[in-house]
Amino acid sequence: MLRLRGDRKLAQRRRLLAGAILALFALAVLAGFLAWRQYDDGKKHALNEVDARVVLASNVFDTYFSGELGVLKSIADSDAVMAADPKAMTAYFKRVQPPKGKEFTGGLGWIDLHGRVRATSSTSAARPAVNVADRHYFTTVLRTQKPYISAGLVAKSGKRRLLVMAEPTFDSAGRLNGVLAGALNLTPSKTNKRSIDLGYEGLQIIDRDGGELLTGTFARPENRALLARMRKTRAGLLEDTKGLSGDGGRVVAYSTSALPGWITVIDRSSASVFAAARRSLELELASILAAFLLVLALLVWAYRRANRNALAELQRTKVTSDLTRALAVASAPGAVADALAAALAATMPDALAVVALQSDGSRGLTLAGVSGRALPTLDRSRPSVLDPAEAVYESGQPLQVTGQSDVAERFPQLQRDAAKRIGSVYAAPIARPSGRKLGAVVLLSTASRRPARNDEATIAAQIDQAVQTLARTLRQEREHEVAVALQRSLLPGELPAADAIAFATRYHAGGVGVEVGGDWYDVVRRRDGILHVSVGDVAGRGIPAATLMAQLRNAFRAYALDHASPAEVTRRLGRHVPEGGMVTTACLAFDPYTRRYEYALAGHPPVLLLDRDTGEVTQLSRAGAPPLGFATPETIGEESGLLPARAMLIAYTDGLVERRGASIDDGIELVASVLAASADSTADEVADAVLRAATAAEGADDDAALIVVDIAGTPSRFEIEIDADPRLMASVRARLQSWLTLREVDEATQIDTVLSVHEACINAIEHGYQLRGGTIRIELEHEADSLRILVEDYGEWRPPTPDPSRGRGVQIMESAMHATRIASGANGTRVELERRLTVAQHGEGAPV
Amino acid sequence: MSDLEPRVLTVDASEPAPGVDLLTLTGELDFASGGELATVLARLAGRPRRVVVDLAPLQFIDSSGVKMLVGAARNAESDGGGLVLVSPTAPVRRVFEILHLFDVVTVTDNREQALREAAEAAAAEDDVQLRGDAQA
């Protein structure tokens, strides 16, 4: 819940920040838009400016030329001109236009109606008169009798760039008597800085002939289309067009002057026209961006500042909730210690958290949990790590040591082990509210300072939180141990060891609860030497299952002694299963003297048989019936076979092979593969290996019982007890014969031994027990060089009778054996026989 | 353990020739299994019979079995007949050997010859008997 609230707060704050950033962004966009609009206006303004300049320039030219023509007109109206007196004119002209005069820099002159220049302002008066009758300005003025300005430059006289103005002259009677011409000497102009500053950059004047006047080059603009357009429209403003030279991206403004008909043009690159507007746009955008970034930084800073506390709170909350969750599922003290250590380390990131718990039995503490990345070089298994824990465990009070030297003084070994890297030690006992101590926590920090008060409180809270679970798991662990001990007590302690046959059993308590399971294993050695192996599993857990298990195990022992057939034993076990109960069993009987085995399964996974010489594993699964509780007696059958010379059997309950989410066949295969690889292992090694493999798999948490039977060969001892019933003797002889054959005893010895044992038994039956029955014990021991035989009965001792047949039995024994000793007493008769074996047997050893 | 059940002794009695009884013993003859054989032998007693006992399928004999056969041989002889044991197996032969009974009973490995000789002896006895009867 805490975690949720913290999360919500954080998310709210995050949303707020996102909204603010969004709004800021919108504002920036709006400002950008406005700046763009302003730029647009600036561009228009710049264009208008250019246009205005052109008009202004055009007007300036108009005014100038009007003034010049006015001057010319007033000269024409002078008396000297009206009188057409060359001398007077020359004198007048020189006065009006001295050599460095400003008005008509190219000079003044009067031309008579024949085209002869009669008077000039020029100093060289001696020169013969020049005839200009063919000049355009002369003919035009004669024809129109109106003032004239030449179309363009008139460059007829050498290098001089001249502009000619002309005015008709009249005599006092008003008759046309000549033409007055004034020339302007043009100085080529270059666009200079001042003209640029005044907005006249790119100013050009194009005369009526289309020549560029201002630069004085007379060049004609490349762009004829533009020229044509300008002539046609007289005035205009073209944006983003091709300029006079034909280059693109130009702004062209033009205006045609009224009087000389020349075109004033400003032709500039758009970039230069709009430079100011662009600069202002750039400046504006930069200001907006700067403001945006500044406000953004402010926002983020404020957000982070506001969040820092919330995050710290959230981290604490997360650690607490992680700890709560871990504790909820912790089933062992070790898990609690791990969870607590992890929580402590998360709270104190620069510390190594150690949790020590009181070890069972002894009074000391053991390391139960370590967490944290601090002090990576410190070996956590060093006993010195527990020194601070021991100290607070003893005192019951928290402990704080700050500073490397203080730590070294208080815990010298620990500081040495940590290579003097520990800056501070904080330790606190773990104790129940009742005061019962459970352990201690230690925080080894690299920083030389005590934990913040906040953190110290958190640590205390975490310990408090863990204490309850720790107490519970400690109790459960003890209870589980008791339950397992109880379970073990219900299972057999010692199994009937036999020569060449070894057993290993394991009981794996899957869960951690207090409930005992219903799995069992058992081995019964019958009096006749046949071994009965049984494993079984009562469905369910707890006392009812364990009780039924104990009953079934006892029943198995009883039935196995009475019945040699596993199927019959299984059928009888079925009678003990209550209504609604379910039990699975595997019963297997084998005769170590004949290697014959029989088995019966009821709802149980197969018994596995390993041939240790070939490594082959066989699943004994053919004799299967439903589980007891479902199986009817008729469905329970048995199968039989012969064990290989060296064999290993494993019978187990399904807890060993069942996994959540996996097929039971996979589990069986796993056990089979372990078994197949165990040809040279002992029964105990196989049991351990199988259990390890089976319990290592994920999801193996059921109880499991297993028994491994190692049949290393044929026992060197043949040891059975039989009822004193002559009808059983055929079976005894057959088993004895089989044993002797498996022991590779020579055939003559086999014959004599079977015969002698038989005769001894018959004597016991017939004479020892007087055919009233009893028990006969038969023991044979096969050694390297001899076969020792004991046949014993517990019948009443009778004085030897002259019965010839008894005598014949003894005679047989004495003849067939190398030594015969018959001792009869109150408690029965012992017949001890010995047959010596030679290495080369084959009959020669037989005594006669 | 089923194949360890006592292998009972079976006694197969036939009369391949007049006056000749062929008994074939299969299995094991011991203290417990001799009942049927005792009955068959008792039926033969009291008459001069030629008995051939085929021991080839007999896997075991104990002292009580030997006693039965030796007793039957004595009875046959005292009745004027005879008993021949044919082809004893090693375990059986061993018992006779230990008890030094090869002097007491006739043992042969040739079953056909034993049967032939038994038939001839029986015929001869018949002749004697017939003659005796005629004389009477």
* Tally of separate domains of chain B: 1
CATH top level of chain B is Alpha Beta
Give me the count of strands of chain A.
30
Query: What is the count of distinct domains of chain A?
Result: 4
SSE class of chain B: alpha/beta
Low-confidence stretches of chain A: none
CATH superfamily of chain B: STAS domain
Largest inter-chain contact set: A-B, 37 and 25 residues
- Could you tell me the CATH topology label of chain B: Transcription Regulator spoIIAA
Molecular shape of chain B: globular
Strand content of the residues of chain A, in percent?
A: 15-25%
Query: Mean of the pLDDT scores of chain A?
Result: 85
CATH class call of the largest domain in chain A: Alpha Beta
Assembly state of the chains shown: heterodimer
By CATH's scheme, which homologous superfamily of the largest domain in chain A applies?
A: PAS domain
User: Could you tell me the strand content of chain B as a percent range?
Assistant: 25-35%
Helix coverage percent of chain B: 40-55%
**CATH topology of the largest domain in chain A, anyone?**
Beta-Lactamase
End-to-end span of chain A in angstroms?
Answer: 99 Å
Largest sheet of chain B: 6 strands, mixed
In short:
With 848 residues, chain A is an alpha+beta fold.
Please describe what this structure looks like.
The complex is a heterodimer of chains A (848) and B (136). With 848 residues, chain A is α+β, with helices and mostly antiparallel strands. Chain A is built from 19 helices and 30 strands. In chain A, strands 16, 17, 18, 19, 22 and 23 form a six-stranded mixed β-sheet that branches. In chain A, a hairpin with a 4-residue loop joins strand 1 (107-112) and strand 2 (117-120). The radius of gyration of chain A is 64 Å and the shape is rod-shaped. Chain B has a single domain (2-129), classed as Transcription Regulator spoIIAA (2-Layer Sandwich), CATH 3.30.750.24. Chain B is 44% helix and 26% strand. In chain B, strands 1, 2, 3, 4, 5 and 6 form a six-stranded mixed β-sheet that branches.
